[in-house]
Amino acid sequence: MTGAVKDIQYVLTGILHVLYQYSGGAVLLAFLAVVMYSYAQKYGRKRTIRLWLRCFKHSSTFRSAFFMLIAVSMLLYKTVLCRYFTTSPLALVIGHWRIMNAKGALFTEPLENGILYIFIACFASGIKRRSDNGEASAQRKTITALYISPLVLELVQVFMSTGRFQVSDIAYSWAGITVGLSAWYIKDSCKRKIVNHDL
Asked: Widest CA span of the chain, in angstroms?
């Protein structure tokens, strides 16, 4: 009887663990699917697809938002939505700074958030926004939000016990944001020079 109880407990624990790990991503995906379904029901599936393709083809803002959301979704799945439960979120506050672990094998986790933030910052900077104080004010708000977001993610992981608060993650994320913003600035400056030269 004891063996049967242990088996049942093992199965239930596995099921609850899977539900806990993937519920956040499932809710997000279901929400987006329902939004698209509602729009398609109102305007028709073909019209919805044509509109999406037209926006993707002709709007640089739409493309930037689309690719930025891909990177943001990957980051959220990695940090909050689909993480293993941890009972010690503050066990390793300093975090991992090297790309080699104690066994001498490559350990890329410290760099993953930074790489994702390179794409997020680059595409977020390409999204055109309206602001009462002008484009410069909107850009400053975007940059501020980008640099605050890694800290918010780490705090959310602590409160939800889905990961560990690590200073190294924040530092690598800030480095990725800086690289992404610099890449966008260089690209935008070159584009402006080409346009002005043509005029």
From this structure: 85
Assigned token pair, 81: 């939505």
Q: How far apart are CA 196 and CA 199, in angstroms?
A: 5
Residue 122: name the closest of 161, 164, 72 by CA: 72
pTM for the predicted model, two decimal places:
0.68
Per residue of the chain (199 residues), give pLDDT as tens.
Answer: 566 777 677 777 766 666 666 777 778 888 888 888 888 888 888 888 898 899 999 888 888 888 888 888 888 887 777 766 555 555 566 666 666 666 666 667 767 888 888 888 888 877 766 555 566 777 888 888 899 998 888 888 777 766 777 788 888 889 999 999 898 888 878 877 776 665 5
By the 10 Å C-beta count (0-12 exposed, 13-18 middle, 19+ buried), 170 is classed as middle
Q: Quick check: 95 and 157 in contact, CB under 8 A?
A: no
DSSP state of 133: T
